[in-house]
Amino acid sequence: MPTRAGHAIGARALSPVVVHTAPLVLPVCEPPVVDGAVAVRGDRVIRVGPRREIEAAYPDLTPFRWPGMIVPGLVDAHLRLDRTPARSAVHGVTAVAGVAGDLDAASSAAEAGLGGVTYLETRCEDEARWERDGRDRLITAIREVGHPGVIGIAPHSPDPVVMEDLAILSRTFGLRLHVETGRHPAGFLDEVGALGPGCHVAISGPLDEADRKLLRIRGTAVAISSPFAAEGLLDGETTIAFGTRTGGDPLAVARALTRDGSPGTVLDRLLVEAVTLGGARALGMAEGPGRLGSLGQGSRADFAVFAVEADERTAYSALLHEGPGRCVATVVGGRGRRPGDGRKAEARRPA
């Protein structure tokens, strides 16, 4: 087939570069950048660094100039998708571990413009029902779910045979697991083979020392949904994230864990990392091209803008203590979103 000179068969034009600047950029994976910028092409970050350097690399572009700070999109690591997930964008959330009770709910996160993993909730009281039609219904749902994103399983059954089969099924299909420990103790989950790096658990109450140790040994991340559940988990040895269940503000959940509400650099950094990079790790999306939870070359262009003033020394504390309720914009996959409704927004240069 003839082709026009200079155009290879199958070649596609590159997306244009878009530059976003702010008084401070907090990549999380690297030190904060004062007077920083993020260069985006399509749905990927191609460069993060000082504003002057990035603007000099793209002199013909007019940057989006944001107030406050640009941070990686927050991750809600435990969200019921029947609780209007579009509300999450108001808080700077760009990805979720969404638990869907049916196929209609399973598509709601993608419709709201949120990334992450959609977990199909599976309830089956006993082995007989599971063998009769439970397994087949789940496999059909996995194949028919109406969005192109990542799918996982949220298994709930008092029958250990069913839970063991669900764990095997997840590994067979290469799907992640997400379980609430209030329904299944850590020891039970370990016995049925559910725990491991491919699983994260949601907790609303404290774990005992044996359970914390078991989760740590198995490499299973923990999504904290209540301040009461954080006991023994803030030592940096366990991968933690935050979940709201109802579409609230995960940054506010994290802030509730600060001691006496006073800034403390080490703890504040750990909590901010948990609501970004920790959430990405819980979803298995913290590494490789298109990674979440941090901003760097090759990461997915998901970030939030908070109207918070800080410098490189106070960045983590300022975001944690002043950030809740002050998200002014989110960008998901390189596209701006209207706060609160999840719809695509027309790009406009901030004043």
UniProtKB/TrEMBL annotation:
Listed GO MF terms: hydrolase activity, acting on carbon-nitrogen (but not peptide) bonds; metal ion binding
Q: Which organism is it from?
A: Streptosporangium minutum
Name this protein carries in UniProt: Aminodeoxyfutalosine deaminase/Imidazolonepropionase-like composite domain-containing protein
Domain named Aminodeoxyfutalosine deaminase/Imidazolonepropionase-like composite: which ranges? 36-60
Which lineage? Bacteria, Bacillati, Actinomycetota, Actinomycetes, Streptosporangiales
On the tree of life, the source organism's domain of life is Bacteria
Q: Which is a Pfam family this sequence falls into?
A: HUTI_composite_bact
What keywords would UniProt list here?
A: Hydrolase, Metal-binding, Zinc
- InterPro entries attached here? Metal-dep_hydrolase_composite (IPR011059), Metal_Hydrolase (IPR032466), MQNX/HUTI_composite_N (IPR054418)
